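Posting this for the archive.
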Amino acid sequence: MRNNIVHPGADELTYEIREIVEVGNKIEKTGVKITWENIGDPIAKGQIVPRWMRQIIADTIMNDNSSFGYSPTKGLLATREYIARERNLEGGAQITPDDILFFNGLGDAISTVYNYLNKNARVIGPNPAYSTHSSAEAAHAGSPHLTYRLSPENNWYPDLDDLKSQLESHPEIAGILLVNPDNPTGMVYSQEIIAQLVGIARQNDLFVVSDEIYSNLFYGGAVHKKLASVIGKVPGIAMRGISKEFPWPGARCGWVEFYNRDKDPLFARYVKTIIDAKMLEVCATTLPQKVLPAVMGDARYYPYLAERNAAFWEKSQIAYSIFSQVPGLMTHKAFGAFYMTVLFKGSVLRPGQFLRPANKAAGEIIAPLTPGSNLDKCFVYHLLASRGICVVPLSSGFNSDLQGFRITLLEAELAGFKNTMQAIADAAKEFLGSQ
């Protein structure tokens, strides 16, 4: 073409979590049954939205014709009032409905937040990183995502010394991202850790972004504190939604909360840009906004979440008991969200390790994908072709220099979950001993 029409960040838009599905679908056509452990869709893994919640949704559809129409661009006022009231009861940063902006899922919110950031300003995020954040931020900047280390030796807590070092090396950093509870590690950060991170932001005149899509999914004695409780006077953005929590991923309903817009004029102008950009899109999905206060305000809601969380905790302990017995692997129990990360220790991964494929055709599908790949990616694709289990490599799937893979705790049937985890562990033993 006469002009280059390719965005400078085009090569940063990768999403291994879903890209591996294409490979899995091809292998499935060879006769290998696939167990999908790659994506966090509770509905696809057999979790059931409770009948009382469905009834609220059904009644709204049948009795409220406005649920079929547009909502105000920022979101329904009554819903934003409900969220602001709930947040303010926590006693931290105080917000109004005008500090809340609805999106069609957090993917939409994430894309907008980075897309309208000054191209020379960067947001540093955790390593391992959730790829929607890392890809969107990298694409915005046209260069690889900047990260600070989550320490597997210290329960996946943020390495604050590494964060400080990165801030010194990269003066272009304007914001710090945390995901809490974390995807992919399943860790929940204490109020003290968040306060330390906020303190670093305050000292360096930065804003903070906290992805809290899993904010009510925590267990095993962990206590989750939202960014609002510790943000103080530092500018910040929290991201929340219902896709994992209700769960209703197909609703495409997420929102952001802006804190301390009045404390910094540049941050205030940045937030206005995000709101102005949303104005061009008309509105977010109306129905889930309509039912949100009724569902979350129902007396059955938090007992229902407690039951789900207890099931995640049980599976977290089972997975830990299985993987912690495998030489060469390292893992921690998950305390939030519904994921766990399993690491390969040191140099246990080597070129040439393999698993025998379930059939010749499956082997031929992965053959061109593994030479030269990250070694954890080699394991993941061999696992897929040999056992029909689809997990996500840590390196290419989560923008990490660590080698490992992410599993989910979503399988509804406990015996099936145990069998899948044991099959992965047995495959890892065989893979590591294959030379």
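The chain has 14 helices and 14 strands. The mean pLDDT is 93.
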